[in-house]
Amino acid sequence: MSGEFLARGATLTFAWFVAMNVAVSALTLAAAAVALREDTKRSAGFWMSLRLAPSLAAVFFTIVLFAPSYWKLEPRENVEGFDITLTLLAGCGMAVLGAAIVRGLTAWTTARRRVRQWMAHARPLNLASTTLPAYAIDAAQPLIALVGMRRPRLLVTQGLIDALTPAELDAAVAHELGHQRACDNLKRLAICSAPDLLTYFRAARVIEQRWAAAAEHLADRIGDSAAARCALASALVKVARLTPIIPRNREPISTLISGGEIASRVQRLLSDDQALPSARTWRLGALGAFACLAVAFVYSPLLHSVHELTELLVHTLP
User: Fold this and answer.
1) Mean local confidence (pLDDT), 236-264
2) Where are the domains of the chain?
3) Which of 170, 171, 202, 275 could tie 232 with a disulfide, CB 3.0–4.6 Å?
């Protein structure tokens, strides 16, 4: 196997990666424009899927479809040269991927640095409402945060402990446990490090804000107890009043008010209607299973089609 064969395969892989990114990013921008014009509330899963669609589609196409088609069908002899346009596209693809890696590492290391600073003078905290490790920390603003992904911890400032009643503190802890069950810290990191071109559009920030708000609403579902909901609503109001500027962080750290929309969250908590946008998990699962079966059934012909399409595009590029 020649090095030229592998080098051309890598070039085509990155070229296809950026081409799929452009196509699906354009579709995502159109879908986001329609969704944002509607008044209906969308689920956190919807906004998450929309935000990650370009990167997931590009990765799926290049790894599952193009790479096997190239390996199986491209002749090892007489490897074609490297066109300027193709090489430029590949360079763009590598730049997109490299920038995503840098963003992800920056968010992760920034979060680790922040947690290390908080933990420098932390004191173990006994919270009856959870078995997660909890610590009281010193910080300028009142804060309760879920940090970590593999080994999550709860960090609570002494100022917040002093400001909230025991019932309000328990409700705030239950909210953070909702973030833990939803793996929101991991999702924040995935959003931040998504290798796509959508990142450079304002629509990406809007989608991320909608996801963060929907994730906060979902984490607010702490049970059917009206007293617990009222306690959480009270805690939200207190913390918002004590926080002049609500942070909009992209780090893998979940806090009580980082998603904003305090008024709508309080209104929903105090209303009798606790219905949230349906995630339609079973429908998404069924659709995904059907798509996998369809791809598996036509996989071999699909590889030939991808190879033919690749040859067509390569020979029509300037």
Assistant:
1) 81
2) 3-316
3) 171
